[in-house]
Amino acid sequence: MAGWSLLAVGVAGLVLPLLNGTIFLLLGLFVLRDQHGWSRRCLDWCDRRWPGQMGRLEKLEARAADRYHHGFRWLRRKLGRA
Prior knowledge:
mainly alpha; 83% helix; extended
């Protein structure tokens, strides 16, 4: 649901002057890349077009996932459910 919402905001951002639609479109594609082949193909095209940026995006995703899992371990310890 998050990926589709980001795509919708991205399309709105292409029309509205206050939002940068391309960022939301890319984020939506990134979220949907494992569920849909067309999303993976779009990201492959972006990777060929901007190779350095996609690598940075994947590193950022790995860091966010690590922080997410680390945060839940911290919360479980605080609640006494380690």
